[in-house]
Amino acid sequence: MRVHVLGICGTFMGGLALLARELGHEVSGSDLGAYPPMSELLRASGIPMHEGYDPATLDPAPDVLVIGNAFSRGNPLVERALERDIPYMSGPEFLARHVLQGRWVLGVAGTHGKTTTSSMLAWILEHAGLNPGYLIGGAPANFDAPARLGDAPFFVVEADEYDSAFFDKRSKFVHYRPRTLILNNLEYDHADIFPDLDAIKRQFHHLVRTVPGNGMIVVPADDEALAEVLEAGCWTPQQRFRRGGRPAGAGEWGTRLHERGFTLYQGDEARGELCWNIPGVHNVDNALAALLAARHAGVPLAAGLAALAEFRGVRRRLELRGEVHGVRVYDDFAHHPTAIATTIDGLRRRVGRNRIIAVLEMRSNTMKMGVHREALGPALEGADEVVLFRSSALGWPLEEVATSLGARCQVLDSVGDIVARLAAQATPGDHILIMSNGGFEGIHDRLLAALAGHGDL
């Protein structure tokens, strides 16, 4: 079958293309602005990429056009497909039809932590010798690619609540029908497609409806929004855990933090211990959820803890991009106030009293709309200094946040100005945390180069 993927350089759609290729299909794709690591992985797999959306790309017509959710009516390739009656489907539908049929699907859903928890879960299964398939919306360091078919039965999928396509407004995860489901947390996000939190809860309940009675839902016991989702109806056993290093209640799982990791508890009984180098209490919660999901798939807790001791993290999740003259530069995907706060807290626990300079680009549609503007100031409180990038696409005044943070906060209009300011002001021992869910105009490499040019830091 000839498959053409529209939006092939996105992590999900690129991973889908890799899976289609592994299935033996002839795969190609179209996108704008191909960039590593996905562009490199696709080329290495022999998948041709077309820059732009020339309708002639579909001559001769593929057997199916797989359309990413960033594309809508008016796109030249979409219009050509409709005019020529070329079969098309969404990415999640293709995944469900051609990959997930007959598999034991382990889905990871929630506002935060999906990529890291999916990576942890896939690695636990891999370490246990199960060779799982997976599709992850990021670049897990323990694997060579964000997707692979693996061996039956297990397949781990990052279960996103965003819509499937311009012609299918259901959340992606409704297609996946997981047997094991992690619900990490639930907050308001994606304001461009969801009017309020209740609309997202509705989609999460649609997901809950698809989990069989002999499956398992792993869920925090202290998340009010998820409790309301499950109260609307649940036909599947639940495994509950406590977040934030809080002790477990009767019948629950929890953790107690120590300097190098945590001890795992079931009720009052210690069930194991983990020492690792992954920062942040939120990652302890992610680990606990992954351990319980893997346990449902048959991996003993001891084996899961042994795997996590070798977990190396995910690119763009508090990833150290480089150190120059004692100044460390990090890259993080945080783009929601809760994620921003937990990322800063995780870095603070690692670096102690050393100065943290937080640099934030508000690139997601929700952030550009200013939906979380009142929560941004408190989320950034843990940083010693803050730099906010004011892009031309921003629809609200950043001065509201800057005022709440006082003299520690600067608002700058160009990435070049940010790089110059940081390079001039940084001193040995500083930790510069750059947060964006986009490329941020290559700020990381530009800053490292600028720091290297200041030999007297």
Note the beta-strand portion. 15-25%
The DSSP helix count reads 15
Q: Main sheet: which strands, in order across?
A: 8-7-9-6-12-13-14
Q: Main beta sheet: strand number and arrangement?
A: 7 strands, mixed
Q: Into which percent range does the helicity of residues fall? A: 25-40%
Radius of gyration from the alpha-carbon trace, in angstroms:
22 Å
Shape descriptor: globular
Number of strands: 23
* Head-to-tail CA distance between termini: 58 Å
Q: Average pLDDT value?
A: 91
Question: Which blocks of ≥5 consecutive residues have pLDDT under 50?
Answer: none
Q: Name the structural class.
A: alpha/beta
Q: What's the layout of helices and strands?
A:
Layout: E1 2-6, H1 11-22, E2 26-31, H2 38-44, E3 49-51, E4 64-67, H3 76-83, E5 88-90, H4 91-100, E6 104-109, H5 114-127, E7 133-135, E8 147-148, E9 154-158, E10 163-165, E11 168-171, E12 180-183, H6 197-209, E13 216-220, H7 224-231, E14 238-241, E15 253-258, E16 261-266, E17 269-275, H8 281-296, H9 301-308, E18 319-324, E19 327-332, H10 337-351, E20 356-361, H11 365-368, H12 373-379, E21 385-389, H13 399-405, E22 409-412, H14 415-425, E23 431-435, H15 443-452
Parallel strand pairs: 1-2, 1-4, 2-3, 4-5, 6-9, 6-12, 7-9, 12-13, 13-14, 19-23, 20-21, 20-23, 21-22
Antiparallel strand pairs: 7-8, 10-11, 15-16, 16-17, 18-19
Helix pairs in contact: 1-2, 1-4, 5-8, 5-9, 6-7, 8-9, 10-12, 12-13, 14-15
